[in-house]
Specification:
The longest helix has 10 residues, at about 55-65. The chain has a single domain, classed as Coagulation Factor XIII, Chain A, domain 1. It is built from 5 helices and 10 strands. By secondary structure, it is of the alpha+beta class. It is globular, with a radius of gyration of 18 Å. The two termini are about 30 Å apart.
């Protein structure tokens, strides 16, 4: 999948410089999506790409097709290098500006949602190819309108609800702790996974509703949105053959379609960590708007 390179703003959302450490000898691209609270794309994949159940996921397929759901673990920018806000336009956060995933950006308040409450929360990120890097999770500000596509200014960038560097993947999940602040109604959690051994970054939107587990109510007095649920291991296995995401043995194995930004699939195994310039902290502050 091609990387999004169109700058949308001069301000830059960034992540702290990280040690450049390789996890494995051979080059491999990291892939995944938030599993709890389940991401929008993973939720729609769990419903079934060919026959989604919720109105929101049906609309997403109508807008962008089914392939985006089979590629649920591939919402990425290959050369992000911390330049998330520069590269992803307002209203395109859930797709990371990638045309394939445009259905996830639809402005509607009936996306299936996970019920949450304020306080400690254990995040589980479903990973299909582990790698070193930092996770940062942001929550929308009070007053967020879920019927609109989220913009950068909708996120409380100055106060991430969770950050984690190099957590250990266990049973297919990175698990890390965070704290959800007081909110009410429907909100959105935006997760950024910035690799430290590559400029590649992954993104996901998770819809949540405070004080309930049924997804909350949609705007305009319509029926409540359904509760969100993550795909099962069987569903992930069954759909792997339909994925076009390339990550060297964790999905599409066609070396000709690799999306690894570090090295082509035909490259010799790496023997030492890559040299990559660290981001400039003066322009990479998470609260910089």
């Amino acid at each position: 999948m091609p990387a999004r390179r169109t700058a949308a703003a001069s301000a830059v959302l960034g992540l702290a410089p990280l040690a450049l450490t390789a996890l494995t000898a051979a080059p491999a691209a990291a892939h995944g999506s938030m599993g709890d609270p389940v991401s929008r794309v993973a939720q729609c994949y769990a419903e079934g790409p060919e026959s989604p159940k919720s109105a929101a996921c049906k609309a997403a397929v109508e807008a962008g097709g089914t392939q985006a759901l089979y590629d649920w673990n591939g919402i990425r920018i290959g050369d992000a290098d911390g330049r998330h806000r520069e590269l992803i336009p307002d209203g395109r956060l859930c797709s990371a500006g990638n045309e394939e995933f445009k259905g996830l950006d639809l402005p509607r308040a009936d996306w299936p949602a996970t019920g949450v409450r304020s306080g400690a929360y254990t995040f589980r990120y479903r990973v299909t190819a582990p790698h070193k890097g930092t996770f940062t999770v942001y929550l929308t500000k009070p007053g967020y309108d879920p019927a609109k596509s989220p913009a950068w200014d909708d996120l409380d960038l100055a106060h991430p609800v969770a950050t984690a560097t190099d957590p250990v993947a266990v049973d297919g999940f990175y698990t890390f702790s965070g704290t959800l602040p007081e909110r009410s109604g429907r909100h959105l959690l935006y997760a950024v996974w910035q690799r430290s051994d590559s400029p590649e970054a992954f993104y996901s939107c998770s819809d949540v509703t405070y004080g309930g587990g049924n997804g909350g109510g949609a705007s305009g007095g319509s029926a409540p949105a359904p509760a969100a649920s993550a795909p099962t291991e069987r569903q992930i296995e069954d759909g792997a053959g339909r994925s076009s995401v390339e990550h060297h043995g964790h999905g599409d194995d066609d070396a000709r379609t690799t999306t690894d930004p570090v090295a082509p699939a035909s490259a010799e195994p790496a023997t030492s960590p890559e040299s990559h310039p660290a981001p400039d902290p003066a322009v990479r502050s998470a609260g910089d708007t």
